[in-house]
Amino acid sequence: MPAHSQQPVDTLIFARWIIPVAPSCTPLENHALAIRNGEICATLPASEAENIHADEVLRLNKHALLPGLINTHGHAAMSLFRGMADDKPLHTWLNDHIWPAEGRWVDETFVRDGCELAIAEMLRSGTTTFSDMYFFPETVAGVIRKAGIRAQLSFPIFDFPCAWGSGPDEYFRKGLALRDELKHSSLITVAFGPHAPYTVSDDVIQRVATLAAEADMAIQIHLHETQQEVDDALASSRKRPIKRLAELGLLGPKTQCVHLTALNDEDIATLASFGCHAIHCPESNMKLASGFSPVEKMRSAGINVALGTDGAASNNDLDMFSEMRSAALLGKVVSGDASALPDYYALTMATLNGAKALGLDHLVGSLEVGKQADIIAVDLSNLAQQPVYNPVSQLVYTNLSHEVSHSWILGRKVLDNGQLTTLDSRDIITRAELWRAKISGE
Ligand SMILES: CSC[C@H]1O[C@@H](n2cnc3c(O)ncnc32)[C@H](O)[C@@H]1O
Ligand SMILES: [Zn+2]
Asked: How far apart are CA 173 and CA 406, in angstroms?
């Protein structure tokens, strides 16, 4: 007798389709999924699940169940800068708008309010795990605990001072203290977040590499975001940034490289040989006109490619459904091949590949027995989704972020019939409007 029928379960969900992602994205039609103690304990045909005792039973007959989406790169608090500096290239955007605004406004209250706004938007649109790189990560951790979302916190490292600290020594001390404090957290991991090759000097990069190896921690870095970044590095040091980081020991199987446009074949071979993860942010890359990431070439070279939105100040949303669609469409344009980046691969990038990039694939990223119950339900019954030949196609190529009805993280329901259970949307909107008025000088 299977284990699930011997003891009652906490939650039993019947769904029209279950898309497990692993071992494949092939939909299981009219199946059920059972959750016990925060874990998936069974997926089975609906007819075999009717006798299972459960504290809560949901019948989602028009819905697809899939793993929660994993947003592997962003700056959550920057949601308060959404729409503040549009239609500018990266360097103008950062140097003339964002960095001055951060210098003026970013403190713990800004980070708390901005993060609540971002997390509410992410939960509402199907994200159950995100990676953040921003100031005051201990404040972000407090909001994460309140919301019940899963996250990686990449604490910021630059050569220069910022609102969070005076320079690298203080960033390392505070970041490692946060890591010690969160060592036993079931939802949060801490990683190093050296900002970019052009803001972190060689000796600091080497310290990151050494400390991360000693503590077995991940590293996330913006890398080869634009051709200008590569050209500037060649002009000043005659080395491409990827080559420089390889020589300084920063690249390895726990290194998450964000953006990766402006790559030549040697760059791709280097990233593959070190087992680095690529984090593709198609919408931010398009909006800042940063360039195209050669996703298909990286995938063919064996590089794990995950997806991220980047911050809402350069996207301008945190919607992983639209990011999947953009990745799939752009993948075809960049490779000149309509069969490139098919729907199942875009969904895998947004789920299992994200979990692999963050070192969480033993816990989440697919609906497999024994994994933690990070699950979303999406209603496919509306007009713009008809008719449904293949639910995976609908999930990637039609916009479904507003149809996410339920979301569970570690078995806890954080979205119930479209309503957030842990955060107060109205209060979050009120505080965002107060920040807008303050920043606008009203
Ligand atoms: C280390 S804290 C994060 C830092 O990064 C800035 N930022 C946001 N988006 C980007 C991007 O696309 N490229 C480079 N830097 C970016 C953010 O404003 C913070 O200062
Ligand atoms: Zn970024």
From this structure: 39
CA of 195 to the centre of ligand 1 (A): 7
283 lines ligand 1 (CB under 6 A): no
Beta carbon of 153 within 6 Å of any ligand 1 atom:
no
> Could you identify the atom of ligand 1 that is nearest to the CA of residue 225?
13
Q: Is 226 in the pocket of ligand 1 (CB under 6 A)?
A: no
Cα separation, 353 vs 404, whole angstroms = 21
CA–CA distance, 97 with 46 (Å, rounded to integer): 54
Does the predicted TM-score (pTM) go above 0.95? Answer: yes
pLDDT in tens, 135-180: 999 999 999 999 999 999 999 999 999 999 999 999 999 999 999 9
Give the amino acid at 400: L
Q: Which fold has domain 9-67+366-410?
A: Urease, subunit C; domain 1 (2.30.40)
Q: Is 3.40.50.720 the CATH number for 69-358?
A: no
Cβ proximity of 183 and 217 under 8 Å: no
Round to whole Å and give the CA distance between 310 and 312: 7
Determine whether the shortest distance from the Cβ of 331 to ligand 1 is under 6 A.
Answer: no
pLDDT per residue as tens digits for the range 407-426: 999 999 999 999 999 999 99
ipTM of this predicted complex?
0.99
C-alpha span between 73 and 284 (Å, rounded)? 11
Domain boundaries, the chain: 9-67+366-410, 69-358
Angle at 315 between CA 296 and CA 217, to 5 degrees: 65
> Residue 108 corresponds to which amino acid?
E
Return the ligand 1 atom nearest residue 158 CA: 1
> Around Cβ 274, how many Cβ atoms within 10 Å?
19
- Name the nearest CA neighbour of 309 among 359, 349, 273: 349
Closest-lying ligand 1 atom to the alpha carbon of residue 154 = 1
3-class DSSP state for residue 104? helix
SS3 of 177-244:
HHHHHCCCCCCEEEEEEECCCCCCCHHHHHHHHHHHHHHCCCEEEEECCCHHHHHHHHHHHCCCHHHH
